[in-house]
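One chain given next:
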Amino acid sequence: MRSIRVAVWGLGHQASTNILPAIAEVDGLELYGVCSRNARAVSGCMDAWTCHGWTEPELMLQDSAVDVVYVATPTGLHAAHGKQVLSAGKHLWCEKPLTCFLHETLDLLEMAKNRRVSLCEAFMYLYHPQFERLSRYLSEGRLGAIRSIACRFGIPNLERASFRTDASLGGGALFDVGCYPVSAIHALFPKDDVEVVHASVGKQNGYATDTDGHAVIALSGGAEAYLEWRSGCSYRNEIDLWGDNGSVSTQKIFSKRADYVPEFHIRDLRGAQTTESGASGNHFSFMLRSFRDTIEDPGAAEGERSRIARRAGTLHMIRTKAYVPVAASTDVPVFSARSAAMQNWKNVVLDEQSMWPKETRVELEAPHVDQRGSIQPLVNFPMKNLSLISSKKGTVRSNHYHATDWHYMYVLSGSFDYYYRPTGSGEKPKVITVKAGEMVFTPPMEDHATVFLEDTQLLAMSRNPRDQETYESDVRRVVLIDPASVAG
């Protein structure tokens, strides 16, 4: 097979220093070209790497020889640039984080899936032997059940000017360094659901972007993670896992030179410490080898899309919990403080994940009954919409998932089959039959569809408003059940 031809869009320090050499080093990849508004940088790369060059992205995307575009432009431009890449039918590999907003990320994931091209997010450290070994400490059970995780990433201010201090380009500590600890939790505990129990994001006086933050995350397996990130401070880059039978800590988990030899500091049940050494290597090269495999392996591509969605969902929860302002171009309203949020009731979030039902079929409270009749409680925490929905026998509703919204469906009369599975999963959907007097709960990021077995009336109670603009901005269409396959 011929080499996969990669074009790099954006020639900042990261791309020039790390990405271009790694592409040239990986078997099966060819550095085909570079693209930047900076004509001098393009010319220099063309000479240094003997590759093509463009100062106009449209010309790069029109080149049929380009298989992959590695987007290394500022974070706030990723959504627009990623959409251009996918629209041109190219594979999209992108610097982290993929976008500034959950709905933008979900849109790109859906585009990539529909066009059958790969989409990868460049958390390079996940592919280094250091992280793989850290993961084995967990999978082999050496530490016992994990009780807590502490993870810190902080960097001094950069000497050179950068988009990282420009809010309009997606700058700020959360997107620059905070996304790393978030990604680590998902990678170490891939089967756990996460709940952001607390989050705080701060901004030092005189800075245009957020400069620090922390989050407390509860994992469904029982562990709790404390994540902290900062810019404009002394350097910290570390993770510590504490279990029933021991603990392990390691430095430079997120960023390191290729010749760095990692060390793991192990404490046993009694606290006795030993040190084990790991292997060195270029994590950018390891990452690109893995990205290359997603082109030929649909399962690998689907797995990467699922991981991207989970990371983006947690970043969204942190921003929502902390009321983080982001100035990147978007038509989605954001807010900077609780008082400001109160000016737009659509953005006020009063519930949290711990309040949601744990099962799809909701067990109703006992009704209050007296001589006048009965009162049946349905939902006893904040919501923003109550709708009465009538549906005819043999019809299908939903066939979508919600990015942030949840809803209950209580059946007044009739019945329906409810199909559901986690968003991004290729597994066969589960199905339950819901009858009059019963209720189901649909959380965010769950594909779902309803097939009505008879004429049915139900109440839908949701977290978000039901006006068409708000509803459509949060919903993503899927085909869980083909309406043509359902007999009326």
Remarks:
- Residues 324-343 have pLDDT under 50 and may be disordered.
- The chain has eleven helices and 26 strands.
